[in-house]
Write a structure and sequence with these properties.
431 residues, alpha/beta, FAD/NAD(P)-binding domain, 2 domains, binds flavin-adenine dinucleotide
Length: 431
């Protein structure tokens, strides 16, 4: 409660409906006052809040975030794999410094509903009015696409945590890896788009590295519906062979179908090369990391903002505005219109673009998305000293087209990964 009160009242109190007068003294003479509300204080939302205030310190910007501290997915695989000098503190940060320095309003509450007709955001304790809304709410899992039985879904969440959402799930996965004695550790990757395409392969490397270092008699078995890894494919296949020949088994054309917790078996559909068809196969598991299909946070769809058939938010091309409402922007992993990498770097890059667009819009100036392209770089550790990276640049014809470049595996790339991560954290959290 103390922390919430600090955020709510010590800086600029948010113009909550019941207290709308509080912000009256902040009116900027140059830009007609508009209230910008950002839902979600992860990589994209935090970047956008900070950038908006950098561009105009008098803007009325409110960030709403349910978690009390910022937790990172990037570098979580390194922590799970016990990579030297990466601690739990390196993944978790307070919001105080960035709120204090950038002076946006911060409401530490859970959003429960958005009324797009009345332009209101409902949290557990307040109702907040907006002129422009930025939805930076990240992902959620859709277990129902792979499992019908509710009890099994509950068990999966607890016993085989997906760990694509930071915090509790990462702690659970770390405990599972630390207590692992011997046997098969299964990583099951979903079909379709998901958060951080290279993430599960990096995780396989980090866990295999941990098992080898601790001389644990284990196999890390990757079940992948694809023919090859979803990102940096040949580098990961090379790393599996070069560093983890006897530990990692990569199974392409393999989709999770069911799990039997009593028999400790996973059933998966696998393309049988002799029969030339997909057959059901079983594999025993000691522990597993079942990653279900991903989709945009359900607040987006439930509030009437269009999503595509896979559950990702639809955008009005070439903008990051929702196709359903011109005053509402979608940022980060929840976006579904363009083939953007679902990465923290991309979330950050798009956060900048939306901030610039809103400033132009308030000044009634034209903003050209085609001349403000996002960019991406994504690093993956393949052992405790070396990494591989992919960089994306984009151009626009009738949609965003990605060009990419993949590095070699090297120690230099691992050093660059560390510089990138701590640089990004420093940038958005002012640590
Ligand atoms: C294992 C792993 C490794 C990764 N490694 C990298 C990497 O090396 N490099 C890289 O670029 N990317 C990496 N990523 C991807 C990166 O974490 C995501 O792409 C990034 O977090 C997306 O940012 P976002 O703003 O869309 O979502 P998030 O960062 O998840 O932010 C969403 C925010 O919304 C908040 N929220 C949700 N619902 C509500 C609600 N109802 N009320 C209030 N607040 C709410 C959440 O608490 C959260 O803070 C990795 C991901 C994983 C899982």
């Amino acid at each position: 409660m103390i922390r919430r009160d600090f955020f709510k009242y010590s800086l600029f109190a948010a113009s909550i409906l019941t207290t709308t007068k509080i912000n009256a003294y902040l009116i900027n003479e140059n830009i007609k006052k508009s209230k910008i509300v950002i839902c979600g204080g992860g990589f994209s939302g935090l970047t956008c809040a900070k950038r908006l205030k950098q561009l105009d310190k008098n803007l009325d910007v409110t960030l709403i975030e349910k978690n009390e501290n910022f937790s990172s997915c990037p570098f979580s695989n390194l922590w799970i794999g016990d990579v030297k000098n990466i601690s739990y503190e390196d993944l978790n940060y307070d919001y105080y410094k960035t709120v204090e320095k950038n002076r946006f309003n911060f409401i530490n509450e859970t959003i429960i509903k958005i009324d797009k007709d009345k332009k209101l955001v409902y949290t557990t304790e307040n109702i907040i009015k907006y002129d422009y809304l930025i939805l930076a709410l990240g992902i959620q899992y859709n277990y129902k696409k792979i499992l019908k039985d509710e009890n099994k879904i509950k068990k999966c969440k607890v016993q085989t945590p997906a760990a694509l959402i930071p915090g509790n799930e990462h702690l659970a996965l770390k405990r599972i890896v630390k207590n692992f004695n011997s046997g098969n550790f299964i990583i099951s990757i979903p079909n379709g788009a998901y958060r951080c395409p290279p993430g599960p392969y990096e995780r396989a490397c980090m866990i295999a590295n941990y098992f080898q270092t601790h001389k644990i008699d284990a196999k890390v078995i990757i079940l992948d519906p694809r023919d090859k890894p979803a990102a940096k494919p040949y580098k990961f296949l090379k790393a599996f062979k070069q560093f983890y020949k006897n530990t990692i088994i990569y199974k392409p054309y393999s989709s999770f179908k069911d799990i039997d917790f009593e028999k400790k078996e996973i059933i998966y559909k696998n393309f049988d090369e002799k029969e030339l068809e997909y057959l059901d196969k079983k594999i025993s598991f000691e522990q597993a990391n079942i990653i279900p299909p991903n989709e945009a946070n359900s607040l987006i769809k439930n509030s009437g903002f269009a999503v595509n058939e896979s559950g990702w938010a639809r955008l009005k091309k070439p903008t990051f505005r929702s196709i359903s409402d011109d005053r509402v922007y979608i940022l980060g992993d929840a976006q579904g219109e363009y083939a953007f990498a679902k990465s923290a770097q991309m979330a950050n890059s798009c956060g900048y673009i939306v901030a610039e667009e809103i400033i132009s819009r308030l000044k009634k100036q034209k903003f050209d998305y085609k001349n403000n392209m996002p960019g991406n770089v994504c690093y993956s550790m393949v052992n405790k000293n070396e990494a591989v990276s992919i960089t994306h640049s984009y151009e626009y014809t009738n949609t965003f087209i990605a060009n990419y470049e993949i590095s070699d595996i090297s120690k230099d790339v691992a050093d660059a990964a560390k510089a990138w991560y701590f640089g990004m954290i420093n940038e958005i959290l002012e640590i």
